[in-house]
Amino acid sequence: MLILVILLVLVALAFDFINGFHDAANSIATVVSTRVLSPLVAVAWAAFFNFISAMPVLWGAELKVAATMGKGIVHFEQLKAGGISLVLMVVFAALMGAIVWNLLTWWWGLPSSSSHALAGGMIGASLPPLGFAGLIPSGILKIVAFIVLSPLIGMVLGSLMMVATAWIVRKNTPARVDRWFRRLQLVSAAIFSYSHGTNDAQKVMGIISVILYGTIWADRAAMTPGHFPVPFWVVLSCHAAIGLGTMFGGWRIVRTMGHNLTKLQPIGGFCAETGGGVTILALAHFGIPVSTTHTITGAIVGVGSTKGTRAVRWGVAGRIIWAWVFTIPAAAIVAGVIFLVTRAIVGVVGVG
C-alpha cells in the first residue's frame, strides 16, 4: 500500500510538472513577445518566482485553494468510506484525465486551464462510484462561475491599467516609455509568476493531501471544516515541480498567447501581467482555484482592445474560449473512463 501511495504522489507531482510546462506561456508569453527577456532567461525568471511563492506558508499563510481542491469538490468522507483502494483509483483517474487533456491542448497550442482540468478529473472519476450525491454543488458552481468571471476581471483590470498608464506617460517620448517599461515588465512578470505558483501549486497540494489522509495517515481531525493542514514537504515538492515544468516551457502556447492573440509593447505587457497577477492573488485569498490561463488571456485581450477591436484576433480568442468550455467535461469524461477501466483491471487481478 505504501508503494502505491508513493507512486500516486509521484503521478500528482508529474501533473504539477505538466501544469508548469503547460502554463509557462501564462508567465512568460508577454515578456518574451515584447523581447524584454530571451525565452531561456524568461522561463528561469518565472520558475524562480513559482518556487519562492511557497515561502508565505512558513509565515502561517492559509492554503485556501488547496482546501477547495481537497474537500470542496467531492465529499471526502464518502470517498474515504469506500476504502483505501477507492481513494487511490479515484485520484489516479482524476490525475490521468487532467494530464491527458493538458497534453492534448498543449499539442493543439491552446491555453486551456489546468485548474479546471483537475476539477473536471475529480468530478468525472468520482461520479461512477459515488454518484451525484458525492459531489459538492456549491464548490463546483464556484469554480465554474469563474470560468467566466476570471477572464472578465482580468480584461477589465488590464484595459483600465493600460488606459491609466498611457495617460500617465502621455507627455513622454515613445522611446523613453519603452525603456521604462522594459524594466518594469521584469517586475510585472515576477508578480504574475508568483501568483501562478501561489494558485496552481496549491491545487496539487490538495490532491496529495487527499491521498495521504485517505490512505496511510489516520489523522481524521486533519480534514475537519476550516482545518486543512498540508505537510511542508508537500508544499515544497509541489512548488519545485511546477517551477521545473515552467523551466521546460510550453512553446506552442507561448506563440498563441504572445504573438497570435494580439501584438504587445512593453507597456502593454506590463499592464496585462500586473492586471492578471493581481486578479489571481485576490481570488486565491478567497480559496478560488482560478485559472491563470483564463485570467492572463482576459488581461491580454483587455490591453489589446484599448487599441480598437481590430487589434485583437478574435478568431484565435474564439478557439481559446471553446477550449475553456470543453475543459471540465472533457477531463471528466476521460477520468470517468479511466476509473471504470482501472476498477475493471483491479477486479480481474483481485486487488481489494
UniProtKB/TrEMBL annotation:
Q: What is the recorded membrane topology of this protein? A: Multi-pass membrane protein
Q: What is its main location?
A: membrane
Gene Ontology CC, one term: membrane
Regions that span the bilayer: 38-61, 82-104, 116-136, 143-169, 232-254, 320-346
Q: Name the Gene Ontology biological process terms.
A: phosphate ion transmembrane transport
Q: Which InterPro entries match?
A: Phos_transporter (IPR001204)
Q: Pfam families, alphabetically?
A: PHO4
Tell where it localizes: Membrane
* Swiss-Prot/TrEMBL keywords: Membrane, Transmembrane, Transmembrane helix, Transport
Give this protein's Gene Ontology molecular function annotations.
Answer: phosphate transmembrane transporter activity
This protein's name: Phosphate transporter
Task: List the source organism.
Answer: Anaeromyxobacter dehalogenans (strain ATCC BAA-258 / DSM 21875 / 2CP-1)
